[in-house]
């Protein structure tokens, strides 16, 4: 019985195979159809809908988010994104993230400092740490075949650092060097001061270690910070040019060291203040901002469009920035060299929006007032549709071009995976940008004009007004 | 969403800080906000280094940069190996020569070696006469034997001899007998043409030797020693 049934099944199977072959022959024989286009009338099984070239995002039960893109590039990039920026520092360990940034090559449980350096160099890779106020990003890049080697070091650095006391104390001169170099840049000084003046907590912490804490951050502080903040629920493992299954395996096996959400950061409280940093510099850098919107809202997108509407930096190298409203406005106020752009920065629960000016000391006040007048003009409705289109196009262009580099793409994938646990494609984001209307932009400008201002200035501040005088 | 809003604008680079632990392939002058050397290691890619032209030092087969060097590699390799091999052989030979010359300088000098041989002009020795020479500190007897003596010695019965040796075994040319003039008993010098057997007689203890230097009577145990000698030509005898 079974045998007979088997034979009959065989015959039907053969028939089906023949029929399928006939169909395929028929379809392929259609002349004039390019092989580069998908065959029409071919039903794909649901499993085949995803092509390898899509960005895959998976959230593991522990909370860890894995995101990867197989772009067939000869070089791979892997990043571990952690919600452990300097906003999560507490008053007794201020500056610990700065030290963490410098401590990425210290001895870990699985590899000594020398082994990490030598091992990564041996495959021609790079290991670096980037930290912002919200996130810390550990990145390794290497050739595609050497991913296993550098992955081992990356996991060691993020999950099993030893922070040996003598190695940590050896970091003090590097902290000082870092601070000295940051002090050379006026922009860094102003932006750090701006955040310090604008917020009461969390976001007021500086990216750089405060002077009174240099040399006072010990191994214990680092361990505690890592214990509290480097938990699976606050991490994302992102890869470019790696297989998603491989990354998932690594995430499940190695990045489940600390479970839970760790300590929740405090909500940032905006206070609005002023900070003045006098110096002998011949240029006055000044930032005037007000609270904007949190990053995940559509209001934030409106602020971004407003930023490009007003002018967000050069689009032509060494150009005159003629399309920038702010530049046009300030050019009427002074003939001396100046620069002005809109400042926009959004965080998970707050944001800052305003203007950033660089001017000669004697005309600083005029420049700032002229820039603010331009923003007021936008708030009062002095924006044409053409301006809006231009601004949207510039924002879209800048965003899309940032995705062109592997660093930009990795950062985009990582920050989205970390915050939302999914990835918004570039097309979706472009659509959202297009949906920003004139009223949204005008409201954003009004919010700035009416909001409590924060000001940070540095340079020769003789003629620079105070925040209540502008 | 956040990525768009959070990092656009000219001041975006100042909103975060990057530190490199290990950085490979950095072009000198690369844009970096705080370009301190990576603590772990930093590799710079210099594109301005000029490599000098080594054409003067190259072999003719490898001066063309567009031709593969593998075509001439066999020829070049075999030439190099041959040259090295030959030089090694010559060097080893030279070394061996130098070493042996140095070592042989420590051996006996020529004057000492010269003393070890004696050349005798045979024409000066009349028939029947025995001549004594000093050789290596010992007396050397050279006897020009007569036919009668030769016949006598060759006819001696072996059983009579204490140290049986045929005359043939003791001479190269029967006409000339060369023996050391040292008595095998206690080392005295025998007297020639004396004794009962027409040979030698040792006066110390009365050993009689015949014309072939064999012991016949007396206390000596062995025949007179026959040294190594050759006749380089008819008229010369070289002993030693």
General description of the model:
The complex is a heterodimer of chains A (470) and B (240). The radius of gyration of chain A is 27 Å and the shape is globular. In chain A, strand 1 and strand 2 form a beta hairpin. Chain A has 470 residues and is α+β, with helices and mostly antiparallel strands. A six-stranded mixed β-sheet of chain A has the order 1-2-6-3-5-4, with helices on both faces. In chain A, strands 7-11-8-10-9 form a five-stranded mixed β-sheet, sandwiched between helices. Chain A is built from 16 helices and eleven strands. Chain B has 240 residues and is of the alpha+beta class. Chain B folds into two domains: 50 residues; 122 residues, Rieske [2Fe-2S] iron-sulphur domain (Rieske Iron-sulfur Protein, 3-layer Sandwich). Helix content of chain B is 23%, strand content 25%. Chain B contains five helices and twelve strands. Chain B has a four-stranded antiparallel β-sheet, with no helix packed on it. A three-stranded antiparallel β-sheet of chain B has the order 3-12-11, with no helix packed on it. In chain B, a hairpin with a 5-residue loop joins strand 7 and strand 8. The mean pLDDT of chain B is 86. Chains A and B meet through helix 2, helix 3, strand 4, helix 6 and helix 7 of A and helix 1 and strand 1 of B.
In summary, what is this structure?
Chain A is of the alpha+beta class. Chain A has helices spanning 2-28, 96-102, 113-122, 147-159, 165-169, 172-184, 186-198, 219-229, 244-254, 298-310, 325-333, 364-379, 385-402, 406-420, 426-434, 438-450; strands spanning 55-59, 65-69, 75-82, 126-132, 136-143, 235-240, 274-278, 284-291, 339-346, 351-359, 453-459.
């Amino acid at each position: 019985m079974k045998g007979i049934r088997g034979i009959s099944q065989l015959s039907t199977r053969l028939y089906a195979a023949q029929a399928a072959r006939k169909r395929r022959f028929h379809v392929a024989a259609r002349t004039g159809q390019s092989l580069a286009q998908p065959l029409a009338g071919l039903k794909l099984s649901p499993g085949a809908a995803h092509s390898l070239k899509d960005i895959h995002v998976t959230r593991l039960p522990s909370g860890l988010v894995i995101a990867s893109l197989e772009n067939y590039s000869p070089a791979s990039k892997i990043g571990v994104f952690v919600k452990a920026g300097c906003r999560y520092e507490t008053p007794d360990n201020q500056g610990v993230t700065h030290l963490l940034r410098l401590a990425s090559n210290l001895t870990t449980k699985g590899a000594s400092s020398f082994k990490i350096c030598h091992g990564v160099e041996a495959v021609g890779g790079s290991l670096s740490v980037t930290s912002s106020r919200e996130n810390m990003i550990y990145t390794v890049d290497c050739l595609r075949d050497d991913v296993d080697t550098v992955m081992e070091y990356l996991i060691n650095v993020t999950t099993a650092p030893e922070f040996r006391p003598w190695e940590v104390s050896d970091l003090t001169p590097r902290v000082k060097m870092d601070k000295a170099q940051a002090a050379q840049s006026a922009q860094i000084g102003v932006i750090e001061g701006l955040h310090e003046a604008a917020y009461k907590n969390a976001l007021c912490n500086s990216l750089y270690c405060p002077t009174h804490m240099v040399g006072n951050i010990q191994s214990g502080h680092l361990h505690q910070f890592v214990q509290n903040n480097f938990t699976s629920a606050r991490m994302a493992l992102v890869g470019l040019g790696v297989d998603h299954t491989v990354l998932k395996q690594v995430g499940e096996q190695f990045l489940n060291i600390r479970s839970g959400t760790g300590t929740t950061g405090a909500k940032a409280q905006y206070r609005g203040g002023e900070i003045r940093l006098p110096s002998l510099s011949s240029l006055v850098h000044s930032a005037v901002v007000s609270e904007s919107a949190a990053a995940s809202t559509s209001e934030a997108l409106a602020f971004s469009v407003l930023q490009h509407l007003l002018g967000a930096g050069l689009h032509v190298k060494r150009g005159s920035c003629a399309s920038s409203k702010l530049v046009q406005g300030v050019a009427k106020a002074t003939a001396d060299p100046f620069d002005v752009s809109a400042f926009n920065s959004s965080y998970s629960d707050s944001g800052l929006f305003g203007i950033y000016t660089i001017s000669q000391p004697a005309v600083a006040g005029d420049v700032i007032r002229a820039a603010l007048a331009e923003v007021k003009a936008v708030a009062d409705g002095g924006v044409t549709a053409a301006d809006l289109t231009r601004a949207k196009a510039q924002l879209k262009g800048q965003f899309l071009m940032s995705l062109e580099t592997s660093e930009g793409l990795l950062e985009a994938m990582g920050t989205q995976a970390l915050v939302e646990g999914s990835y918004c494609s570039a097309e979706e984001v472009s659509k959202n940008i297009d949906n920003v209307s004139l009223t949204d932009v005008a409201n954003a400008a009004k919010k700035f004009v009416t909001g409590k201002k924060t000001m940070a200035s540095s340079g020769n501040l003789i003629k620079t007004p105070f925040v209540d005088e502008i | 969403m956040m990525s768009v809003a959070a990092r656009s604008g000219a001041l975006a680079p100042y909103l975060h800080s990057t530190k490199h632990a290990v950085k490979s392939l950095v072009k000198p002058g690369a844009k970096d906000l705080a370009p301190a050397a990576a603590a772990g290691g930093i590799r710079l890619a210099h594109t301005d280094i000029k490599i000098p032209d080594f054409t003067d030092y190259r072999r003719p087969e490898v001066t063309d940069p567009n031709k593969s060097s593998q075509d001439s590699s066999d020829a070049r390799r075999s030439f190099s190996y041959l040259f090295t091999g030959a030089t090694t052989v010559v060097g080893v030979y030279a070394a061996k020569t130098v070493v042996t010359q140095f070592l042989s300088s420590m051996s006996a000098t020529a004057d000492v070696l010269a003393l070890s041989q004696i050349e005798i002009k045979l024409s000066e020795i009349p028939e029947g006469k025995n001549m004594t020479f000093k050789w290596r500190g010992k007396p050397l007897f050279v006897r020009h034997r007569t036919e009668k003596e030769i016949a006598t010695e060759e006819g001696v019965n072996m059983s009579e001899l204490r140290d049986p040796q045929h005359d043939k075994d003791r001479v190269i040319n029967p006409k000339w007998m060369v023996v050391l003039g040292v008595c095998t008993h206690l080392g005295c010098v025998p007297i020639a043409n004396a004794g009962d057997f027409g040979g030698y007689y040792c006066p110390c203890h009365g050993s009689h030797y015949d014309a072939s230097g064999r012991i016949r009577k007396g206390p000596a145990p062995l025949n007179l020693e026959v040294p190594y000698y050759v006749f380089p030509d008819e008229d010369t005898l070289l002993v030693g």
